[in-house]
Specification:
Length: about 350
């Protein structure tokens, strides 16, 4: 029996193979028991909590750490044997590749979870979810690219010359694609700072419309006339953007002009009349009304009120109702609106 156990195959006795198998089986059993009972209980406990962080980390342990431990058990079991240099090299390179892939997956999971949590806290819309997918794709690409360079370096590939070449090429590409990179960084600014979102009505210079799409390079706006306006992201972040979606209430200033023939008693009544008209409207807050100036051909009043809504159509409905009510009151009171007139005095001697 002892001779059989000492029988050598590929430089290792059978007893050594049995020992390696025993280490492998024991390690696998321990990991399996941990996953079956300990990790399962932790999952049930995490489901009872309000936070999602514990669920996420348990998921990372299940998807990345457990496979890594299984591989570690296999790696240790093989290293109890007398391995050839070539096999050791293959095993070590395989370990580097496997560990790198698992680490990258874990890092990407953490990044994705962080960005998704940020989006959930900010009550992101469906448009922001599309933006998030674009950002995640870019971030994942960068992480995998860095991991690939790290992997090549650990596999013994001389990447210094490659990195130097990429550095020179990167500078050339950066200079050639300066505008694209600027728009890309502006895209991140728009996503995280949120000066506007999809569905917002904005004005940039003399252009205005509703934001339809925010891309990595351009943002598209549906103008009032129906045409689509395309802006580079850099133009938007460098411009003064008027975002009417963010407006909680709209301040309205309007003027009235009456003739100089209006009696003083009725002039004193006009601010009170207009105040009553404005206060009768829904979703309005009266601010002030004054006899402001003496004009060339009119007595000018200025009134200010607020519409407690950002909806432009609602503002126009309110202003129309106010204008009609003012016309009716002035018609009833015999107050005349002023319009440009000139009085020519001709001497009798002529």
């Amino acid at each position: 029996m002892n001779d059989i156990l000492q029988y050598s195959i590929f430089g290792n006795a059978i007893i050594n193979y049995l020992s390696a198998t025993g280490v492998l089986i024991c390690g696998v059993v321990v990991v399996y028991v941990f996953k079956k009972y300990v990790l399962k209980k932790l999952k049930k406990y995490a489901e009872t909590t309000d936070t999602e962080i514990d669920d996420f980390f348990i998921g990372v342990i299940d998807s990345s750490l457990i496979p890594l431990i299984y591989f570690g058990v296999f790696y240790i079991a093989l290293h109890t044997l007398d391995l050839t240099a070539g096999f050791k090299h293959i095993l070590e390179n395989g370990a580097i590749v496997f560990i790198t892939v698992l680490v990258v997956r874990a890092v990407i999971s953490v990044v994705n979870f962080g960005l998704q949590s940020y989006l959930n806290k900010s009550h992101g819309s469906s448009g922001e979810e599309k933006q998030l997918k674009g950002i995640l794709g870019l971030v994942n690409f960068v992480i995998w690219a860095i991991a690939f360079v790290f992997l090549l370096d650990n596999l013994g590939v001389k990447i210094s010359a490659v990195v130097a070449g990429l550095g020179i090429g990167g500078v050339a590409v950066a200079l050639a694609a300066q505008a694209v990179l600027g728009d890309l960084f502006s895209y991140f600014v728009i996503f995280f700072d949120k000066p506007f979102e999809v569905g917002d009505f904005i004005i940039i210079g003399d252009k205005m419309g509703v934001v339809e799409y925010i891309g990595i390079k351009t943002t598209r706006i549906r103008a009032i006339g129906g045409e689509q306006l395309v802006f580079s992201n850099t133009d938007l972040t460098n411009s003064r953007v008027h975002n009417f979606k963010k407006m909680e209430r709209r301040r309205v200033v309007f003027n009235l002009a009456v003739t100089y023939q209006t009696p003083s008693e009725k002039l004193k009544m006009i601010p009170k009349m207009i105040k009553c008209v404005i206060e009768e409207q829904e979703n309005t807050t009266y601010d002030r009304g004054h006899f402001a100036t003496y004009g060339d051909f009119s007595l000018n009043f200025e009134f200010v009120y607020y519409v407690t809504s950002a909806d432009y159509n609602q503002y126009m409905d309110v202003q129309q109702a106010i204008n009609l009510a003012i016309y009716e009151i002035f018609e009833k009171e015999g107050i005349e609106f002023a319009y440009p007139t000139q009085t020519i005095i001709i001497p009798k001697s002529l």
